[in-house]
Amino acid sequence: MLVARLAAQLPARRALVQYPIHARTFASKKSKRPQQDPSGSQPAASSQSSSEPSKQHPNVDPSAPEQAPAAPGDISDSKLSDLPSLSTLDFTAADETPRSERTGARSAKDSPSSIERKTRHMSKLMIGIAALGLGVYAASLGGEWTEAELKEKRMTLETAPSTRWGRTVERASGVFDLFTKPIWTELLPPPLPAPHQKPYTLVLSLDDLLVTSTWDRQYGWRTAKRPGVDYFLAYLSQFYEVVIFTTQHNYTGCLALTHDHQTAAPIVEKLDPYGFHVAYKLFRDATKSENGRPVKDLSYLNRDLSKVILLDTDPDHCTTHPDNSLVIPKWKGTPGDRGLVAMIPFLESIAIYRPPDVRPILKAFHGKDVPVEYAKQEAEAKKRHIEAWQQSGAKRLSESGFTLSSMFGSTSTPSKSPVPPTYLEQKRAEAQALYKEEQAYIAANKENFERLLEEDRQAMAKEMSGNALGVVQSMFLGKKPEPSENATVAGADVSTPEKV
């Protein structure tokens, strides 16, 4: 059967497909076989080869008689010789893709065009010019200091770098001053002329000194004023130019890093609503950054540092001028606290006695409990005053026994005169009287102050809304914003002189 024959030849065909070289050799040998004689005689080799299929194909009987040719389409009795010759099949393997090896020659597409060459030359030229300019700039940074530079940097010839490299580094680091130094070179305006200017400047921190904040689930964050803070500010404003200096931002500032909902400006306004006691307010943009921490550099205050006192609760804020600073304990909301009021006698004594330089006095109290230590010194001074008065001549005259009543035979002993107050006590009594007078004036005119504050708020809100509306109209509608009713001559619109 044909199926049996094909199954018998299948291993041979697989071998030929697997080894294409043998298949090609077999095909070449078959092409060299002699042609069959037309007379029907066959060579011996062919007869020999015809007898071999019985060995290769045991299912084929060589002695069987030849059968008649099968009808077209009948393949059941087809012979092996009638099948297509294997020589007509292409068993050669596909040629492998030849490898592309580098010959060292440059490809045309790798060579730059004329425009690219010009661009490269121009880039090299610009880099060279930039390097030359940078070198010239670096050389100019090492020049000598000028008087204007020393004044701007708040240095002297003794404190400024003297070497060329030191001057270069100092001037080059000035590029980052926008991020590390206060926004203004002078944080406060020039002092007022006498007698309006207070002799000393008192810089107060806000966080945990004047106020503090607490949080609970019922109310969230709440800010509380320290006990006695109103009296502290009102009383000492007689002697000092009071400045509140906080490390928090005025627009998104907070009392702590987690108090993101609070702003510092409204809190400061609550401490002095009428503007009687706090002269100036400084916020985070007025601080100096050192190692990523805000520092209150007092040299930017535009004040004589010999007459500046800084009260703070964080020693990191006072690193630039420790001799001008006093670090006191933080207030964490304890009711009935007297720590702030206890500082008043010490501060008022400095303002009353008016020393030429406050720094030696403040340095003597570093690391001590200032109210307690000063109370001891004031008690000792009072004791010395009494002893001096007792030894004075006025006391001896009062104890001499000669009085007007003794001339008429009276035997009563004269009473001793009271001890006169000290100079500090006299000035303190005067300051207390002025404080009471000021508080009475504020209480009597509180309604007028509140009315003025409300008018200012309304005018400010109207001005802000008018400016915003005018900007929108000019941007989208092309309308010119109308001038405000409170416009001055310099800022009024010339087209509407009647509103001036």
Structural commentary:
Residues 27-118, 479-500 are annotated as: Disordered. It is a single-pass membrane protein. This is Mitochondrial import inner membrane translocase subunit TIM50. It is found in: Mitochondrion inner membrane. There is one protein chain. 41% of the residues lie in helices and 8% in strands. It is built from 16 helices and 9 strands. The protein has helices spanning 2-18, 20-31, 44-51, 53-56, 114-141, 147-153, 164-173, 177-180, 229-236, 264-271, 344-353, 359-364, 370-390, 393-398, 423-444, 446-477, and strands at 200-204, 211-216, 220-225, 240-245, 278-282, 288-290, 293-295, 308-312, 325-327. Helix 1 packs across helix 2 (20-31) and helix 5 crosses helix 7 (164-173). The longest helix has 32 residues, at 446-477. The protein is elongated, with a radius of gyration of 54 Å. The model is unreliable at 15-27, 36-60, 252-261, 404-408 and 484-500 (pLDDT under 50).
Mean pLDDT: 75
CATH topology of the domain at 200-380: Rossmann fold
Structure annotation, total helices: 16
CATH superfamily of the domain at 200-380: HAD superfamily/HAD-like
* Strand numbers in spatial order across the main sheet: 5-4-1-8-9
Order of helices and strands: HHHHHHHHEEEHEHEEEEEHHHHHH
What separation lies between the terminal Cα atoms?
A: 124 Å
Assigned CATH architecture of the domain at 200-380: 3-Layer(aba) Sandwich
Shape: elongated
Q: Calculate Rg over CA atoms.
A: 54 Å
Would you identify the regions where 5 or more consecutive residues have pLDDT less than 50?
15-27, 36-60, 252-261, 404-408, 484-500
CATH class of the domain at 200-380: Alpha Beta
Helix/strand/pairing class, anyone?
alpha/beta
Number of strands: 9
The biggest beta sheet is recorded as:
5 strands, parallel
β-strand percent reads 5-15%
Q: State the helical fraction.
A: 40-55%
